[in-house]
Design a protein that fits this description.
With 262 residues, the chain is an alpha/beta fold. 53% of the residues lie in helices and 13% in strands. Strands 5-4-1-6-7-8 form a 6-stranded parallel sheet, sandwiched between helices. The chain has a two-stranded antiparallel sheet with strand order 2-3. The protein is globular, with a radius of gyration of 19 Å. The chain starts with a strand and ends with a helix. The model has no long low-confidence stretch (mean pLDDT 95).
């Protein structure tokens, strides 16, 4: 039977779009300070081409290309510092997710498995979701990162549940779906379209970045094989609740079949 629901934070519980717009703005500023004459739209065009050719890690690849390893590291620290100071300045709760977590907590135990700053946990507390979350596998806090199986094993151990008693809800095939499936955890790919995330661009930088996302985004990459094929999909909080109930029925059936074979 299904006992635990594990959720990603970025782009499942919290909208990461403003944070990514900030990262690209800071990258462009650092490039200009280093003497590069590349416009912000040109940088975004390069971003889109990298996603089409290589998939994830586009920001990191561009940072190392233009700033070098040390320059990229300093940029990461500077951006992280801004988010630590005010996490919610560059994030927003995804539409309907606070209510979904509350409803799910009435039937299941809730955890998060996320590559995030430890301040993301404080942000969840601040918006009221934290009181429902029993296990927090947040990469910076525990020292494991997705897609390593260790972060999932850490969460399962703290939860005291078998893989078949848990479902992982994430927006990325490589970090969420594939590693969870390999461990026997049920999976739901939750991808809310960019124009349904309830966030309006605050300035021209965000407007340009969001337009770039609509042209190319890792959240629209297709599975590369069976290990990246989720058990269910959802495109909203409402669809997620229904998908979890379908998983619960399938998990119960699988548990019954296993008992019958004993």
């Amino acid at each position: 039977m299904l006992r635990w629901v594990f959720l990603d934070i970025g782009d499942v519980l919290m909208n990461d779009d403003p944070a990514m717009a900030l990262l690209y703005l800071e990258l462009h500023r650092a490039m200009c300070s280093s003497g590069y004459r590349v416009s912000f739209p040109e940088l975004l065009e390069e971003r889109e081409e990298l996603i089409r050719r290589h998939g994830p890690e586009h920001w990191q690849m561009l940072g190392r290309k233009y700033l070098g390893e040390q320059g990229h590291w300093r940029l990461m620290l500077r951006c992280a510092g801004r988010m630590r100071a005010d996490y919610m300045a560059s994030h927003a709760v995804m539409p309907g997710m606070a209510d979904a977590v509350r409803l799910l907590s009435e039937r299941y135990e809730i955890g998060v498995v996320a590559n995030q700053l430890r301040e993301s946990g404080d942000a969840l507390d601040g918006v009221g979701m934290g009181r429902h979350i029993k296990v927090r596998a947040i990469s910076e806090a525990i020292g494991h990162r997705k897609p390593s199986p260790e972060i999932y094993l850490w969460a399962l151990e703290r939860a005291g549940c078998d893989p078949g008693e848990a479902v992982m809800v994430g927006d990325r095939l490589d970090n969420d779906i594939a590693p969870a499936r390999r461990l026997g955890i049920w999976t739901i790919l939750c991808r809310v379209p960019h124009d349904r995330r309830g966030y309006e661009a605050k300035d021209e930088t965000e407007r340009l970045y969001f337009a770039s996302q609509r042209r190319a985004s890792i959240s629209r990459l297709d599975p590369s094989g069976p290990d990246q094929t989720p058990d269910e999909t959802a495109a909203s909080a409402e669809e997620l609740l229904l998908a979890i109930e379908r998983i619960a029925h399938r998990a119960a059936a699988a548990s019954g079949e296993a008992e019958g074979r004993r």
